């Protein structure tokens, strides 16, 4: 864990439009933004949600039948890991000696995920986060992440975490990262205030979420949102109906200190890069008053159960007895009848209230009786 050594460094939060849905052009623009941030002395730069190949705004603007062509374009331009696109991002981070955190649409097989990619200043991927629950119609395009992606990473700059957009409304998810003592939180968002009717509400939602996370988590928050440029609107507005619902602009980008004070921004309605100096010693200013995962958390009263197991489409189905044995540390099929009976007693204490385990215990008892014969 990075000590509070008093070392100060510069961070950057990008607000920019993607070039929908062109992976190569988005990559080129991302690299130019990374280079610009590095020239200004930034050691960490954060780029918006699904920046490559762009957020699928079309899902909000019409029926699936209307936007099938746009879906296909977006899907085929999503980013595989590993790939030449990821290699180029890593090379840019290494060349410019800067940590890069960027939102991508990750394609894994025939499923896409709303993913944050974490790259260090040596050009090495040190983590990724898949959005746990795509919001509303996002579920048509993106699959769900799992608890294995709720991580805080040790870096040369400090302990780093990240969440996507409205994951910041999932308080238990936020707390799982706060409990791992994140110091630098990278919040990537879509600039949804470009959608008619959401101009004020979405900016308010963003500001509340970002500043509250910085306050409760006693961490720095780099909040990065995208914008929608004129070319994006023209691409998406294929009928008069779509043109009524999206317009150029959007975005609420800021860099926020522990406690919730804004260090840079907010930047709204235009492209740009915000910079701020980070001093990890500022975390102590909040620790004096409040510690969300220490003496102020009271886990004896209320605690969080976190499932860190990765989601798998296929799983090996071993015998019932092997499954039961693994729950207490040994394989039942290799045990004597006395050992099986002892194991069943342990299982009854551990899983006795479960209907499924009651059934499995009955099968184990039958196996034990067979061994005694």
TrEMBL record:
Organism: Paenibacillus naphthalenovorans
PROSITE patterns (alphabetical): CN_HYDROLASE (PS50263)
Protein name (database record): Nitrilase
InterPro entries: C-N_Hydrolase (IPR003010), C-N_Hydrolase_sf (IPR036526), Nitrilases_CHs (IPR044149)
Gene Ontology MF, one: catalytic activity
Entry's family note: Belongs to the carbon-nitrogen hydrolase superfamily. Nitrilase family.
PANTHER family per the UniProt record, alphabetical: CN HYDROLASE DOMAIN-CONTAINING PROTEIN, NITRILASE
Residue runs in coiled coils: none
């Amino acid at each position: 864990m990075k000590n509070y050594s008093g070392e100060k460094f510069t961070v950057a939060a990008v607000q920019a439009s993607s070039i929908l849905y062109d992976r190569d052009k988005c990559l080129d623009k991302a690299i130019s933004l990374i280079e610009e941030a590095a020239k200004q002395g930034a050691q960490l730069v954060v780029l918006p949600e699904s920046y490559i190949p762009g957020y699928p705004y079309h899902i909000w603007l019409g029926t699936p039948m209307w936007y099938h062509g746009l879906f296909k374009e977006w899907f085929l331009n999503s980013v595989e890991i590993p790939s030449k696109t990821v290699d180029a991002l890593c090379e840019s981070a290494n060349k410019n000696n800067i940590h890069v955190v960027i939102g991508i649409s990750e394609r894994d097989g025939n499923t896409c995920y709303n993913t944050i990619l974490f790259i260090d200043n040596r050009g090495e991927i040190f983590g990724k986060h898949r959005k746990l629950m795509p919001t509303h119609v996002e579920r048509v395009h993106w699959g769900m992440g799992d608890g294995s992606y709720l991580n805080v990473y040790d870096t040369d700059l400090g302990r780093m975490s990240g969440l996507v957009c409205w994951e910041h409304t999932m308080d238990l998810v936020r707390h799982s990262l706060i409990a791992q003592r994140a110091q630098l939180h990278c919040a990537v968002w879509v600039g949804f205030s470009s959608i008619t009717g959401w101009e004020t509400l979405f900016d308010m939602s963003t500001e509340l979420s970002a500043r509250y996370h910085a306050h409760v988590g006693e961490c720095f928050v780099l909040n990065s949102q995208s914008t929608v440029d004129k070319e994006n609107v023209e691409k998406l507005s294929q009928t008069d109906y779509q043109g009524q619902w999206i317009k150029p602009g959007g975005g609420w980008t800021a860099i926020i200190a522990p406690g919730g004070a804004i260090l840079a921004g907010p930047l709204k309605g235009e492209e740009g890069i915000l910079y701020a100096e980070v001093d990890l010693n500022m975390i102590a200013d909040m620790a004096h008053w409040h510690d969300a995962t220490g003496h102020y958390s009271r886990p004896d009263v209320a605690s969080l159960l976190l499932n860190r197991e990765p989601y798998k489409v296929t799983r090996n189905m071993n015998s019932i007895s092997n499954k039961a044995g693994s729950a207490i540390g040994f394989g039942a099929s290799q045990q004597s009848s006395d050992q099986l009976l002892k194991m069943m007693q342990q299982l009854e204490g551990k899983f006795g209230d479960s209907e499924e385990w009651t059934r499995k215990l009955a099968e184990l008892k039958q196996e034990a009786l067979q061994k005694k014969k």
